[in-house]
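Retro notes, item 3 of 5
We never archived the inputs for the arginine complex last cycle. Fixing that now. Sequence and ligand:
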Amino acid sequence: DTQSSAGDKAVIVMGTNAEFPPFEYREGDNVEGFDVEIAKKVAEKLGVELQIEDMLFDGLIPALEAGKIDFIAAGMSVTEERKQNVDFSNGYYEASQVIIVTKDNDTIKGPEDLKNKKIGVQLGTTGDAEAQNIEGAEVVQFNAGFAAIMDLQNGKVDAVVLDSEPAKNFAAQNDQIKILDVELTQEEYAIAVKKGNTELVDAINSVLEEMKNSGEYDELVKKYFTA
Ligand code: ARG
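Structure as it came back at the time:
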């Protein structure tokens, strides 16, 4: 009986892909970030211990369906396609896909200039899907947004399509890249649970609401986001 070993709390498992600052990133051996803070509140509310499983982004939904993780907190955007396989909490953050190029690039100024170009994306993301729709584009899929940025810098891709906040985060630490002032999509991040897990989704929704009402949510925004 695993539940009754002395002093051990029951565990809830968060699945994520810690390649997505400021929502989740590695700090030494730990995974930290905005999503982790929310997940900690959820665990606290349920009186259980939080365990974090860091995996490839495109492995998250399969892991949830297989019962290897209890929820996904990974800056995951709500999409109609994903809704067929998981249930989402209420949204907790509005985001968009942006285009990143090197600072010296003066030919790619907007989405129309991405035609027939080599575009770096993170595998299985909404940015990946968006790039696949661009006429003639060659989409290069990376396991991490950071790796796509490295190849941009090395001239191996012409542009990177990435979520707005991680893009700002990477740009703040790299003076050779710039973010174009145009939003390719409007998306909303939410936490995903296994289809039919209404108990957990209800708990997550009440935590989100409590955090917004108490001002904790705004404090997290201040703590984690690049102005
Ligand atoms: N918002 C995008 C999506 O849902 C990208 C999320 C990537 N998240 C991550 N933790 N790597 O597809």
